[in-house]
Fold this protein.
Amino acid sequence: MSIYLDNAATSHPKPPAVYAAVLAAMQQIGASPGRGGYGAALQASRLLFETREALADFFNCADSSRIVFTHNATEALNTAVRGLLQPGDHVVTTSMEHNSLLRPLFMLQKAGVELSIVPADTEGLVDPQAIRREIRPTTRLVALAHVSNVTGGIQPVAEIAAVARESGALVLLDAAQSAGCLPIDMQALGVDLLAAPGHKGLLGPQGTGLLAVAPHVRLHPLLAGGTGSSSDQDHQPEGFPEGFEAGTHNLPGIAGLRAGIDFLATTGLPAVAEREHGYGSYLREQLAALPGCRLYGPADPQKRVGLLSLTVAGWDASALAFELDREYGIAVRAGLHCAPRAHRTIGSYPGGTLRISPGWFTTTEELEHCCTALATIIQKGNP
Ligand SMILES: Cc1ncc(COP(=O)(O)O)c(C=O)c1O
């Protein structure tokens, strides 16, 4: 028996329609979008257009042409911060961020962008007033993750966005762990740029992601190259979306992403959110009683999603993950989860935590099996 509980890294399995859509795009379309006037190329362009429309609807982004396809959330975050920030600009972020946001920001800091990192509390939550205290006249951006990939904690994004708006700063939301898990309305939340992977909660294939950009945001492209438009010009066009999508698209991936979003629309996001939330609460209840077990993240169930991080006294998190895999075929992730500062914040640095992340296709039996396996491993003792 093999049990996959690493959906925070990438969701698995995908809905059957996702696999079918990938195959159909390869076998029945095959051509590149925006690159030719023949039938298959037009079909590819239509698929891209319809997927942009579906994503704009999904996140309530005002203009579907400002949905930029990327290959993951990391590329979307890089496109946002490197396309926006200039030397002398100030950016505020938090101690809970993933390296895919922090590393580009540190890179920009070397080039003269000023950076403030607001510490979260020990549950991993950020106080909007702490963000307010860091705002300066030069603050151009407030950038943060909606949901922590370490604790599953949900940040008070609407309140933080209101603070940013008061000072005229833009808000970049890293929706890597929330897209497809929580409803996200960019306009209602006050989010100006939203970066998301297509391959996690949106249930699309690996190699997909997006950046949604509000109409008032001016951005410079990260990559330059062939766009299928303005080909007579030496310089990269800066119009949306093609100026931000140099090179051949991942059409099969985008077709799969479209099928993933359709699946979520049919299933209903509230049902997805409720199931995953229920799984998280179940895991907490079952594992809290294990000897030496410490659970991380917000105590308030309304402030967290389904993923759970834990440590067990006397155990290295990676040894637990190894035993779960070797003895029980259970896939979970241990360590720092590319977010070392988040672990420092919650007190699990340098060892990190064991992270269990269920998804839509996880069953209660699988979670029961995981809890029993962990209890047995701990009871047997450290090898
Ligand atoms: C909070 C957060 N941001 C960004 C990323 C990067 O996503 P991707 O692997 O799609 O680049 C992850 C991936 O785990 C994440 O959890």
